[in-house]
């Protein structure tokens, strides 16, 4: 074998599976292969521009940075050429001969879930190049690295179990992808079809894309974020969003900002309409695209916005970012905190304006992304003052509408000094909670916290303005209810009630911190109040949501001295087994209402025995 003879390599098992799906399955939208190849070419040119900042002796430094597509309809061939960074022998084997196992596996799983119609998901898993085998009988990739001493190399595959790599003749820098199209893919050798695909998927690629012999690029190649806002049509903004995300639902909010101080930047940001990424999304990860003077520095920069705003998508371009900064060290640049502060302030400001001017639209945003903001407070309590005005809640007095904390404060009763809240499993359970008895009677408003993230949020949100947040489950949450005075005559006599308390303590033992008469219950038989008003009553709930071992917190069981259940309980013998069972059920029901019962199904046999006793007339 001579040095110029092709060397054969075998694909790995998961790559073979991937190719099998791409070659033998039917797809609704095979044109995505061209989008992927153009995207790869654009990335190669971007990488070259970046390298040339520090490597001025690159091959053909004056060559135009471009992508050229040519087609031969008679021979069913398609060629995509770029003047990008190119590849060496080892790089072409590494990039085209293997796929990260995790990427291939995820793609295969997604394809299986979608009945193998996963063409739109190709770009998510780093397997974009291989989409060419949806349309190709064979593919030949010839490349020469930007390094002057590097040799050209060719990679050839038919989609079988192996591929070939051999030396090549290529004088210019870059990569050429030659495709022999299948008979049923001949449409992709038509120039009009190619142009339509470019306009649909690649119009905003930042380098000229030439088709055939045309002298003018077919794509707009516009940095939309650097274009004056009065020169941009609404449809241009939407097109850019669709082409960069493949989310075909209009974004909920667009932010186009240009600033000169304290930093110089251009930014075009979008808030998606949905928190779940579209299955066809081009974005593989959270983060913003970071450019320096139109040169892509970082594809997924997570340091430009706080984590609670990680759903924001878009582009940031700064003149102040040094061009010689590397992708690896960009995060340590002293400019990043300034960029983050400016961008965060602007996004928060735009959200506040949206809430004021388009409340219904903001409520849609809250329904999709509210949990992110709550998580932000939990993870970074120092940000609570920034995030708190964006929070929305439902309350006992307004259970169907969203209210801000500011609106809650504006409706507070004269003399009210705290913001009352109730943590519960769901809104229906919350509205039936015994903790609300006296609050309903007085017309006091209570915020209902019914989502798992609420318990985490409370660990960081203790105050709003000058008002402390206080749980209505506390033993001293709001004092005695005035309605109690009207029912003093109906109360169980003190001596009998003390005996009843003794019986509860005997049956429940160490499971409760205390048992006592309630000053707040009106309709309910009992409630579990926090034993220590200074403790965090939601910590065990947090442990529960995290799947960690948690203890049922010892609480004070408060009993309603006027309730008929307790009056009838007194009629049973002191050593009655049924009486003990009823006491157990009252306690378990209170745990259930609190959302901290460790095993609700365990109540079923006891409930059955109580029903049997009731039907038997005992």
For the structure shown, list the relevant keywords:
single chain; 618 residues; alpha+beta; Ribosomal Protein S5, domain 2; five-stranded mixed β-sheet; 21 strands; 18% strand
Textual characterization of the structure:
The chain is an alpha+beta fold and 618 residues long. The chain folds into four domains: 7-211, Heat Shock Protein 90 (2-Layer Sandwich), CATH 3.30.565; 224-345, Ribosomal Protein S5, domain 2, CATH 3.30.230; 359-471, 3-Layer(aba) Sandwich (Rossmann fold); 483-528 and 551-615, Heat shock protein 90, C-terminal domain (Four Helix Bundle (Hemerythrin (Met), subunit A), Up-down Bundle), CATH 1.20.120.790. Helix content is 34%, strand content 18%. It has helices spanning 13-24, 32-52, 89-97, 101-113, 191-201, 234-245, 335-357, 359-379, 384-387, 405-410, 427-431, 437-442, 452-458, 483-486, 494-508, 539-545, 564-570, 577-594, 604-615, and strands at residues 7-10, 67-72, 77-82, 136-144, 153-157, 162-167, 174-181, 209-211, 253-259, 265-271, 288-292, 295-301, 313-318, 394-395, 418-423, 447-449, 463-464, 467-471, 512-517, 526-530, 555-559. The strands form four sheets. Strands 1-6-5-4-7-3-2-8 form an eight-stranded mixed beta sheet, covered by helices on one side. It has a five-stranded mixed beta sheet with strand order 9-10-13-11-12, sandwiched between helices. The chain has a five-stranded mixed beta sheet with strand order 14-16-15-18-17. Helix 18 packs across helix 19. It is elongated, with a radius of gyration of 33 Å. Residues 100-104, 116-126, 324-328 and 482-486 have low confidence and may be disordered.
